[in-house]
Amino acid sequence: LIHLKVDGHPVKVAPGATMLDAIKKSKSHVPTLCFHPEFDPKAVCRMCLVDVKGWQKPVPACRTKAEDGQEIVTNSKELISFRRRDLQFLLNRHPNDCMHCEASGNCKLQDLVQEMEVEDMWPKKTSRGSPSHPEHTLHDHTSPSIYRDMDKCIECGLCVDACSAQKINAIGFAERGSGMLPITAFDKPLKDTGCISCGQCTLRCPVGALIERPDWHRVLDVLDSRRKVTIVQTAPATRVAIGEEFGFEPGTVSTGRLVNALRMLGFDHVTDTNFSADLTIMEEANELLERVSGKREGKLPMFTSCCPGWINYVEINRPDLIPHLSTTKSPQQMHGAISRYGPIAKKIAEETKEEPYIVSIMPCTAKKDESVRPGNRGDIDAVLTTRELAKMIRHRKIPFASLPNDGVFDSPMGESTGAAAIFGASGGVLEAALRTAADALGLGGTVEYKGVRGVDRGVKVITIKGLGSVAAVSSIGSAIELLSDDDWKEKYLMIEVMTCPGGCLGGGGEPKSDDPDILQKRMRGIYHIDSTSAIRKSHENKEVQKLYDDMFDGKPLSHASERMLHTTYAP
Ligand code: HC1
Ligand code: SF4
């Protein structure tokens, strides 16, 4: 171990640790703006400059290694005034827009301004037009999922890192003039780039320059007007992350609190996307078996289709893969269709002659995009991210942290199995499908397929006797690598692709976090739900079985289910 001192206090860190790690461990504090543990530190914001005894100049703590015997000073008068000057410099270029900025309350710049008491230095200008980058498009609201307000950009580059880690590179640094401003190629609107709406850039943006398209205001309007009957669904990965916004440890399972909060917000029917995840497995596992037996068109290996970032990627870049995509709709869209035409909607129509207003809560920004795809348009009225839901809960002053964790979903559309819960983690959709396919083939064996679990970027492969090899791909960048030669065509029977690292629990709409173990922690929450579920296989979901009897001629892949639960793709 390395022994050093921070502000006079001894601290030990592992070899390779940075000064910032040591400072955090010592409980001293230096601010950071451009640092995120997922990426190599660039040290452009200079906020974490510290002095080291005997060194001539201050150094950035984020990218300077801790060494034996160092004595670090984090908060000398000179450092504090340097940081205030640096911040002032940033503020000179940043609009004074907090009153109507979507990032307000969740913005590192705002936090710093308050922490360092420099509010009074902020020039009184708002966001219309930025003198610093007149040559670039600064306001881009063309994407159905992502808004860019680049006059708020502090040029930390974390969005560029995020997009490049995804190997999409829809945004990059401008090469001339204002060298550091992240722009799209040729300044095209985001909708005309290769952007797949994954939202990883919004997850890393420390300010309000890149955000999910805000839809929560109009949902609150509908709830407040009380003129429509509302149905809300909530995704598998939201329940293990929403608590972070209210002080819970990451991975805390807050399903009951979440249901209670949604009812307090005024939603009339609180239903569970997990119900439709079980339904998805019924269709998808049987689709796989029919492709294997040759009863159905569509190529093998079959790719999962529930991740809209992945679908966007295929349609934009690899239309040759379309015949490999499962035609099964995502759980969100199946749930939307059943909310629109199923038993709850029928009851609402009988009572009010009205159609319901249908909302979904997702860990994902691309789900906004998915809801307006041609085949889906109209089923879901608004898609909110986990972060947007947290905002609504705060705005309505609902005491989330002290709510009992005992709320239960409505029935029907509320029952779900452990197989549905694990949809929220990379490998989960595949594992859930294997549970059902293995039973259908009478293979017996295990419920758990641990070889496909794990949140790291990359490809996990397992081979199942009597079936073949399957792969789970965590992050679109890893999928791009896998697909770069044709080996996959021979090797696998089914491939799950999740765009975001770790799967939906790492989604672009989840709470922002600087915890390097955040994905692991959320994953533990997900598998805890599964291992403690009474029923762990989708085909044993009683409500799903009843739905098949009532709406879909008693079985998956019937004419009725093909019409409502399947979709098509187009380049
Ligand atoms: Fe997902 Fe899915 S798992 S895609 O990540 O198939 O968003 O959570 O809701 O639709 O169920 C997201 C999560 C989610 C769908 C399901
Ligand atoms: Fe890149 Fe994803 Fe952001 Fe689009 S949404 S710019 S693909 S990180």
Structure notes:
By secondary structure, the chain is of the alpha/beta class. The protein has 2 domains: 2-75, Ubiquitin-like (UB roll); 218-565, Rossmann fold (3-Layer(aba) Sandwich). It is built from 20 helices and 18 strands. The protein has helices spanning 19-26, 77-93, 108-115, 158-165, 200-204, 216-225, 255-265, 273-293, 308-317, 331-341, 343-352, 366-371, 386-395, 418-421, 428-440, 476-482, 487-491, 518-531, 542-551, 559-565; strands at residues 2-6, 9-13, 49-52, 59-60, 71-73, 139-140, 146-149, 171-173, 182-184, 210-212, 230-234, 269-272, 302-303, 357-362, 382-385, 458-464, 468-474, 494-498. The strands form 5 sheets. The protein has a 5-stranded mixed beta sheet, with helices on one face. Strands 12-11-14-15 form a 4-stranded parallel beta sheet, sandwiched between helices. A 4-stranded mixed beta sheet has the order 13-18-17-16, with helices on one face. β3 (49-52) and β4 (59-60) form a beta hairpin. It is globular and about 75 Å long. The termini are far apart. The model has no long low-confidence stretch (mean pLDDT 95). Residues 146, 162-163, 166, 168, 170-171, 195-201 line the site of iron/sulfur cluster. One of its GO terms (molecular function) is 4 iron, 4 sulfur cluster binding.
